[in-house]
Amino acid sequence: MTVTGNLVGEVMKELRGSETQMQFGFEVGVGREAISKYENGRTKVPTDISRSIVGKYDNPKFALTVQHEYTGTGPIYLNGPNVDLHRCSVREKTIEELQEALESITSTSLAKPSDAIEHFERKNIMDMIEEAVEAATALANFIAVTTEHLGISYSGVWMDHYKYLQKAGFIK
User: Fold this and answer.
1) 124 partner at 20 to 30 Å CA-CA among 27, 28, 32, 67?
2) pTM to 2 decimals?
3) pLDDT tens digit string along 132-147?
């Protein structure tokens, strides 16, 4: 599946494929009219419907798009003309971004209190954060592409991770 947009409705339409809006709506528990409004961007997809779609289709592209569209933050599914989503290309780009982020993090000091940070140091910190954000986007796309290519459950990977975090005492 080729994602041409980064809006939930656009990705939903592509996810629906050849199914009619009525068939798709029945599967996710809403009417055809609601699906039409979601796909055309006239109405935002409610959280429970988004979760239902993620649960039923386990599509990482849809999950990333929902996360980004509804929070306006976080990694976004890359789909521009200059991106190569072959798993090997995504792997190489992820390694490059991680190395750049690690280099930037290790070379940037965060030891001073925030009110003692000079202007040039703040610029270095902002550059470091930018590198970390680029790495986070690369990792999110790496996970999406790899799970989709290998038929691994994207949702399952995250559920296992959350169980680990809870067991390790990092979350309640």
Assistant:
1) 67
2) 0.87
3) 999 999 999 999 999 9
